[in-house]
Design goal:
Number of domains: 1
Mean pLDDT: 93
Largest sheet: 6 strands, mixed
Number of helices: 10
Helix content: 25-40%
Distance between the termini: 38 Å
Low-confidence stretches: none
Length: 238
Amino acid sequence: MTVPILEVKDVHAAYGPVEVLRGVSLSVEAGEIVALIGSNGAGKSTTLLAISQIITPRSGDVRFCGESMIGLRGDQVIARGLVQVPEGRRVFARMSVDENLKLGAYLRDDITAVADDLRHVHELFPVLKDRGGQLAGTLSGGEQQMLAIGRALMSRPKLLMMDEPSMGIAPLLVTRIFSAIRELNRGGLTVLLVEQNARGALGLSSRGYVIETGKVTIGGDAQDLLRDDRIRSAYLGD
């Protein structure tokens, strides 16, 4: 049996005295897109933060490529190829588009490969090339999301975690971003996708999980979840 690229095992996490994750377990196989859906406050973003070690789990384990991530610094997590695109994009508003992209490669010294990856980002999102000298804070929400994804790609991730990439973005640009995620996956990138747009996320994914009040309650094939009456009623508006 092959080992999943990512295994989250019975993770508990809290903000101060408030426990948010109550034993989250999930896995992602190499080459998959896996969706994590749930209502606001269910623990989706906290799950990604615990995987990234931005918050340290109280208990449980996070294993990436067979190695525990518990206790690693953020730069060490990124260096191993586990990279997150944060909710709300978090671009450096007073820096240019080009400067934001270059920051994504700050841990790398393979100059030729970095240049190749920059060309790939520009091919994926041509607007970033056209606006390379523009301040990131002056971009639209959708363009900033493209920049946040491009910045993450510059670190050459093995697994890309994306937190609500469609939030606050015009529908036309949401379609473009979802198409880019599909294209990246076809190129071999593994993706863990947290999304408020449950229908879009499951339609893009091979498998999915539902998290409720800090615990995964349902998991399985994405198309099966789209047909599940519980999912349709709670998250798809059917």
